[in-house]
Amino acid sequence: MKVLSKKLDQFLERVLVEHEARRKTTGYTNRDMVDVLLELAEDPMLDVKLERHGVKAFTQDLLAGGTESSAVTVEWAMSELLKKPEIFKKATKELDQVIGQNRWVMEKDIPSLPYVEAIVKETMRLHPVSPMLSPRLAREDCKVGEYDIKKGTQVLVNIWTIHIDPLIWENPNEFNPDRFIGKEIDVKGQDFELLPFGSGRRMCPGYALGLKVIQSSLANLLHGFNWSLPGEVKPEELDMEEIYGLSTPRKFPLVVIAEPRLPLGLYNSMI
Ligand code: HEM
Predict the structure, then answer these.
(1) 142 marked as binding residue
(2) Using a 6 Å CB cutoff, which residues line ligand 1?
């Protein structure tokens, strides 16, 4: 652990040194989150002073919490959609109607894409990145539902079982984004039947960023490409095994074929 921590610190140190050097060049503007954090660290007016090691810690949080979780969720969404071509088509139809064929999806488009939002919720219901929330400790005797919990008890919340509880969800194991259409259920920690980002004080602090990254990346993948499974793999045969570790990714990476579905000039503008 110590070796790993040292290696990580060396990496973060290099990132900061590079950013600090660029800050001294003429015509400098903030380009990324590290730039913004370094600027905040120079602000003497902050209520809570941000130190240089705090910038490193935030950067590490962003890398650890913000990359794998979003990538894993997008990969599960694509896997579910490849198994259900009718849902795939419905999403593409929404994208064509709202965005058209001549541009990419932007962050501000997301509220106009309720079906894509529903796909993300349904993916997070069936494939929560973190099926067990961070452990909690009861600070006083309490009652949760029918359970008496003594002060000092460690409580583990298993959201995976909540997300597939047949008392809450109809056909809980079926991937069906339509279950969210016209419903108020959200993933922001207020609806206890759907808690992919947890809830309360220890809820994921990066949920807004994570959600935006997932929705925008998925929307653009669906909008920009036709997707198919390679060779003889039939949708119903696609392996959906998962592994449980720091996150819950597919056991075997998803292998797919992508073909452009928008005017070719749009792909050049992405490079
Ligand atoms: C798909 C995206 C993400 C998912 C599904 C996710 C999920 C979670 C969950 C379930 C927790 C535990 C919450 C609890 O126990 O109540 C958590 C904690 C945390 N997440 Fe995320 N997260 C995501 C993205 C991010 C991003 C983008 C960041 C950073 C920018 C981040 C940083 C953190 C941190 C630092 C904690 C620990 C909070 C604490 O213990 O006080 N996460 N996340």
Answers:
(1) no
(2) 61-62, 65-66, 69-70, 73, 129-130, 133-134, 196-199, 202-206, 209-210, 214
| Ligand 1 centroid from CA 58, angstroms | 13
Are 97 and 56 in the same domain? no
Q: Is the pLDDT of residue 271 over 60?
A: no
**Domain span at 9:** 2-66
3-state secondary structure of 194: coil
Task: Using pLDDT thresholds of 50, 70 and 90, give the confidence band for residue 270.
Answer: low
Ligand 1 pocket check: which of 127, 192, 204 to mutate, most ligand atoms within 8 Å of Cβ? 204
> What mean pLDDT is predicted for residues 218-228?
97
Q: Are residues 168 and 85 in the same domain?
A: yes
CA angle, 214 as apex, 208 and 217 as ends, to 5°? 130
Dist. CA 55 → ligand 1 center (Å): 18
Rounded to whole angstroms, how far apart are CA atoms 24 and 71? Answer: 34
Give the pLDDT mean for 185-201.
96
Structural element, H or E, at residue 154: strand 154-155
> Quick count: other Cβ atoms within 10 Å of Cβ 136?
16
